[in-house]
Specification:
Blueprint: H1 2-34, H2 40-56, H3 59-68, H4 78-98, H5 104-119, H6 124-160, E1 170-173, E2 180-183, H7 189-223, H8 229-245, H9 248-258, H10 264-283, H11 290-306, H12 312-316, H13 370-397
Antiparallel strand pairs: 1-2
Helix pairs in contact: 1-2, 1-4, 1-7, 1-8, 1-9, 2-7, 2-8, 3-7, 4-5, 4-7, 4-13, 5-7, 5-13, 6-10, 6-11, 7-8, 7-10, 10-11
Length: 401
């Protein structure tokens, strides 16, 4: 009977990891696939490799937190572990139905907290620490990205804007013993560096996803001593890889081609800020929501970009800048966007802060829809709350558990 329950638990864990891989791969490599700098198959390979690296290094801290610090390890019977994993899988299903990506980390913590509340074993100090970071990290993402948008984004546009020329990025001289690569026809050095940068940052995001999300698939089983720590990490990472090679193909299309006209440069800024915060939190054992952090990073970058129309002195005098959701639209019709074709952006001449007019802030496409953003953030918090309440009711009143 115990072996049959363990098999069920392993299957549920694989299902959770499979879905995480499907959603995380799209977030990490959607911009690269949309910009045609890497194929879907190549993205799946890179996702598997770097998610495994993230899980087996930084991610072990999160596994230990979720597997024995929120509630004691003794609370994780095999039945309880399966139930917790079921809540995580249900959250993923619910998010797919409503079209909003759920935070598996927050949902998993909520389900474990419900177990602790029902048994009276919840570590309130640890929960307080986790919730505090949940409040601080999105604000940090907003302000860091806001500072970048206000003070550094124009320089980044001029220096690092990613262009896309016709033809192959690289060509090979095969006249010697070994093929020698060189820049393809029309490829500039900046285009080559920018293209490599898109892929490198995608790998960094995959590392961050593995660090934070592997625990969501296997922490209850590790906490119950049904599998070892590193066995669990490899199982979770393998399941994420399975999702990357299968259902992620659709999410990469969505993120890379259908979701937004967010410029590739802005997407990379958001990726670096969000991944760095998530990796930091994972390193100190805090389960974090990448989606919420990334959403606030996007809003902060757009806000910072829009506030360039006013100096600090103007703000002190009460002259508030008009903030447009389109503040990060492409600088020209030819500027490459996530999912769009692009040539060389014109740049904006880096006018001094306060000298730009509202007309200088492109409005050709919206970076984010405020109502949709509010709905996403609301549901990101409602789903974990539902998991917590449902977990408490089941573990408190269902005799099986």
């Amino acid at each position: 009977m115990a072996s049959a329950l363990l098999l069920v638990g392993l299957l549920v864990a694989v299902f959770v990891g499979f879905n995480i891989g499907g959603s995380s791969t799209g977030v990490a490599f959607g911009p690269a696939v949309g910009a045609k700098t890497v194929t879907k198959f190549g993205a799946a390979i890179l996702m598997t490799i770097f998610a495994t690296l993230g899980g087996i290094t930084v991610g072990t801290e999160v596994v230990e937190t979720m597997g024995g610090e929120i509630v004691p390890q003794s609370a994780f019977t095999i039945g309880a572990s399966i139930a917790v994993l079921f809540f995580i899988g249900f959250a993923l299903f619910l998010s797919n139905v409503v079209g909003v990506p759920a935070s598996t980390s927050m949902t998993a913590v909520g389900a474990i907290a419900g177990l602790g509340l029902a048994q009276g074993t919840l570590n309130w100090a640890k929960m307080g620490e986790i919730v505090s970071w949940w409040l601080v990290s999105p604000l940090a993402a907003f302000w860091i990205s806001g500072v970048i948008g206000r003070y550094f984004y124009p320089r980044l546009v001029e220096s690092f804007a990613i262009t896309q020329s016709e033809g192959s990025l690289l060509a090979f001289d095969r006249s010697g013993l070994l093929p020698r690569p060189y820049l393809g026809p029309g490829t500039t050095r900046r285009e080559f560096v920018g293209t490599v940068l898109v892929v490198v940052i995608g790998c960094y995001m995959a590392f961050s996803a593995g660090a934070s999300n592997v625990a969501n698939a296997v922490a209850p089983l590790v906490g119950s001593d049904q599998i070892g720590l590193y066995e669990g990490v490899l199982l979770g990472a393998g399941a994420i890889g399975l999702g990357a090679f299968t259902i992620a193909r659709r999410t990469m299309d969505t993120v890379g081609n259908d979701l937004t006209d967010l410029p590739i440069l802005a997407a990379l800024v958001v990726a670096v800020v969000s991944s760095t915060l998530v990796t930091f939190l994972s390193g100190i054992g805090i389960p974090a929501s990448f989606v919420i952090i990334a959403t606030m990073s996007i809003v902060g970058l757009g806000w910072g970009r829009a506030t360039r129309t006013a100096t600090i002195g103007d703000a002190v005098r009460g002259d508030r800048p008009a903030v447009s959701p389109g503040a990060l639209a492409a600088e020209s019709e030819d500027a490459p966007t996530v999912g769009g074709e692009g040539g060389t952006p014109e740049g904006e001449g880096r006018k001094a802060i306060g000298e730009e007019e509202r007309a200088d802030i492109p409005k050709t496409s919206d970076l984010f829809e405020p109502a949709t953003t509010a709905r996403v953030i609301l549901l990101q918090n409602v789903v974990p709350a539902i998991a917590t309440v449902a977990s408490y009711l089941i573990f408190r009143f269902v005799p099986l558990f």
